[in-house]
Batch of 3 targets.
Target 1
Amino acid sequence: MAQMKVQRQKVVGARAKSPSGSTARVEPQTLDGWRQECERLRAELLAAREEVASLRTRQEQVLNRIDWVLDALDSLPDSDS
């Protein structure tokens, strides 16, 4: 039981780390710096949205293939008769 708690804590600790690494970002000091940061964040958000859309499409294709295989397996006993 104690081992499960330790493993769970390791997983939670691993999730808490930022995916881009442990480097701290320096806050922009000028208005132009904030604009550049805003544009960078918008580009990052757009890329993330595109990746999410791509992953959803891939998931839908996989589910459709699984459905097709299950339907094909269900029809096997019918073709033997």
Target 2
Amino acid sequence: MTTTPQLSIAGEYNLRPANKAILSSVIEAFNEDPDSALSALPWIDLRKDINHQLSDMLFDIETASDEDRLHFWSIHDSAGTFAGMVGVGDELQFANSHYNLGYWVKPSFRNKGIAIRSVDSILSWLEGRGGNFRIEVAVHPHNDAGLATAEKIWLNWNGQTLEDFVGVELFGRTIPHKVYLIDLPRNG
């Protein structure tokens, strides 16, 4: 089993293993921009209590952080301010994949390359563990910011993109997503 480690990004930001202690920060960030939060967390059901769903998410993340089936981090600047979340989970579209990748940066920290640098840190950590990993990045085709970030990650890590959309099941509906695949260790 591999425990989720603390990671850093050039001394500017810290990636801390996500846990229930950040619940109020996550709720605040969700309320700051619910539309982008829903793009990053498409399983949120607006008909149910949002705070309870976010609490459950953090409980599940914290509980599974030692099981090596998912690793999620909260992103904090050098002053300790919550900037977002990033991680790899087990909601997979393909049988030969190991993790799916997700990222969400709150509005006041966007356009600073935080998501990409956080992902680079995580993928470097995974690559450094040895072995082979396939990472999926599934993005709704109308999520322009998510697509732009996924494209940069794909290019940085010599990934591949699937030409056809892949159907992702959400609330009993199949929703097409653009899927990028990153294989570790990276080629070239």
Target 3
Amino acid sequence: MIKTPHILMNEPDTFVRVVETIPLQVAPMSAAGLMADGVDQNWMGLAVAAALMLTVFLMLARLKKAARGLREASADSSQNFAATVEIPPYIDTTQLASVADGTDPSDAMARLNQVWERAQQKVETNPLYNPNITERLARDALDIDRLFCTGKLSKSLPKLKPDALERFAAAAETLGAGELSGLIDEARALTIRGHSAQMREHARKGPEWAAFRKDIADLEARLVKANCHNGHTGRLVLLADAYVGQIASEAA
């Protein structure tokens, strides 16, 4: 309501005060309007909060980059090429099989698991830590045994990337298991074939996919055979355990 005063003159010396009331029509604000009004009032606070979060994220990224730069800069720039590349101690891989003789595969697997678990603990303590070649070989030997030699190749192969298969083949070659390395290269070729556009054009129940599954089964049988040592599977695990043991003895 708005009250407006009016003065009326009745007599020469007499004034009459009249108050006229005028109703003020105000349209009710809709829920959408109220929400928009609330956003208009709070947008500044939201913008400030977003800016603070972005600033914190950028600061953390810069700190991580700076720490990595300090670690790299800590090395003497006058070092030669060989000193800047990770070169493991020389191990005569032709003797690893004889070193592994008499070792229980389950014991070897337990030791390799301990090596990789310690590496993971180092990473948790220091996110900038990179597992060394011994720790990576322990991990790769365990993964190769699990993925290729336990009857699960048809399930694991579609999930593996070609670069991971290249790493596995290199690990087997380092451990002196050339036959296994070559078979893993075949697995890489099968992976590329399985993801190819040509195979996607064929029906999954057709003859092309039946032949593809047969190739995987045949490869797995050869992998299991190549991974046998003295009649038992786990040859690569035994070789990796012997390799890690030789590295430890060299470092002692």
